[in-house]
Amino acid sequence: MQTRVVTVGMDQRLFDIKDIFDNVSFHHLVVLDDEDLVVGVLTESDLLAALSPYLGKAAENQRDVQTLTQRVHHVMTREPLCSTPTTGVRDAGQLLVDKSISCLPVIDEANKLLGLVTWRDVLSVLLVENTH
Q1: Edge to edge, what strands does the sheet with 28-32 contain?
Q2: Which DSSP state fits 13?
Q3: pLDDT digit string, tens, across residues 9-27
Q4: Residue 99 and residue 105: Cα distance in Å, rounded?
Q5: Strand 7-9 to strand 28-32: parallel, antiparallel, or no bridges (unpaired)?
Q6: Which value, in Å, is the radius of gyration of the alpha carbons in the chain?
Q7: CA distances from 67 to 20, 45, 51, 63, 112 (A)
Q8: pLDDT tens-digit readout, 73-105
Q9: Of 125, 102, 86, 126, which is closest to residue 26 (Cα–Cα)?
Q10: Residue 42: which region, alpha, beta or left (left: phi > 0; alpha: psi -120 to 50)?
């Protein structure tokens, strides 16, 4: 589980999100509400699907640029599937595969964010287990 997770608010604009993803090496953001409760997940793939493919190209027009003004809550995955600190690695991996998702926010009983598990985290642990 990664405990250093970047979070964003539901009303942030996609130009802020694009800036984050353009400057980091991770691909998932957890969306929190005003009470710091997990309400969604936004992946780099979600962002790319929401933006115009003509951004930054010669054919770009004002409507393409407008896609950057959308808010996170318009494109995030709402009510994401989450795990808890007691969820085992194999169970987390099975959830990722069964639900075709790439991450699981890890929450406590009050729906507060503790961390994030990605398919890479699961794969890394399983590979280490298989080498011992």
Answers
A1: 7-9, 28-32, 38-43, 77-78
A2: B
A3: 999 999 999 999 999 999 9
A4: 14
A5: parallel
A6: 16
A7: 16, 15, 5, 7, 30
A8: 999 999 999 999 999 999 999 999 999 999 999
A9: 102
A10: beta
Which stretch of DSSP H or E encloses residue 29?
strand 28-32
User: Are the C-beta atoms of residues 28 and 116 closer than 8 Å to each other?
Assistant: yes
Contact present, 92 and 104 (Cβ < 8 Å) = yes
Residue 78 is given by DSSP the state E
Residues 41-73 as b/e (b if ≥16 CB within 10 A, e otherwise) read bbbbebbeebbbeeeeeeeeeeebeebbebebb
Q: How many CB atoms lie within 10 A of CB 31?
A: 23
Both tokens assigned to 102: 């790439």
- The pTM of this model reads 0.89
> How, if at all, do strands 113-118 and 77-78 pair?
unpaired
